[in-house]
Design brief:
heterodimer, A: four-stranded antiparallel beta sheet, 45% strand, B: mainly beta, seven-stranded mixed beta sheet, 11 strands
Chain lengths: 109, 123
């Protein structure tokens, strides 16, 4: 079972803005990281920390956090953004365990 | 190019063992912690465990589902991380990924992922 909660599915019209959320107690202490996974491929880090993008990730991806909720926002969604998105953080126990959300399937209409 | 390549997956019977390898290139392997994740067919990602760099003791942490059965180790001279899996169960069937792991007091980040290796546990 996941200790971070994500909506199973979200859809967005091409070019519009979509927010994917992640909730959990650990997010009060630790930032979430966000990973994009397309079918048959390995996950790719898209957002980490307060709001950091790895090299090569488009600036339409951004992150934010408030209380026990972290959000991934895609501003101007593109067809290639259709994928599963997972949030992840360190466990709030402080023992370096990790917790995942169950994933959100993003459909770009 | 920074890269991780997993190997060693395959079909194994329940109760048997298997060792996965993760070969790193393009960065100073010994400076980083390394993690393992898995993903059962059609399911989400699951954290398996990680190993700290030698500078931080090279110690390990594991998910409850694998603790006592799986062991992570590293050979910095070869830039390889290992996942030794013993007493395998059918529910261990998954694609296994290794990652380069960075952490501090506010976050844990897996910035580089391998392509994954499939492990099937079946009689």
């Amino acid at each position: 079972s996941s200790e971070l909660t994500q909506d199973p599915a979200v859809s967005v019209a091409l070019g519009q803005t979509v927010r994917i959320t992640c909730q959990g107690d650990s997010l009060r202490s630790y930032y979430a990281s966000w990973y994009q996974q397309k079918p048959g491929q390995a996950p790719v880090l898209v957002i980490y920390g307060k709001n950091n993008r790895p090299s090569g990730i488009p600036d339409r991806f951004s992150g934010s956090s408030s209380g026990n909720t972290a959000s991934l926002t895609i501003t101007g969604a593109q067809a290639e953004d259709e994928a599963d998105y997972y949030c992840n953080s360190r466990d709030s126990s402080g023992n370096h365990l990790r917790v995942f959300g169950g994933g959100t399937k993003l459909t770009v209409l | 190019e920074v890269q991780l390549v997993e190997s060693g997956g395959g079909l194994v019977q329940p109760g048997r063992s298997l060792r996965l390898s993760c070969t790193a290139s393009g960065f100073t392997f010994g400076d980083y912690a390394m993690s393992w994740f898995r993903q059962a067919p059609g399911k989400g990602l699951e954290w398996v465990g990680f190993i700290r760099s030698k500078a931080y003791g090279g110690t390990t942490e594991y998910a409850a589902s694998v603790k006592g059965r799986f062991t992570i180790s590293r050979d910095d001279s070869k830039s390889i991380a290992y996942l030794q899996m013993n007493s395998l169960k059918t529910e261990d069937t998954a694609v296994y990924y290794c990652t380069r792991y960075y952490y501090d007091s506010r976050m844990g980040v897996d910035d580089i992922w391998g392509q994954g290796t499939m492990v099937t546990v079946s009689s």
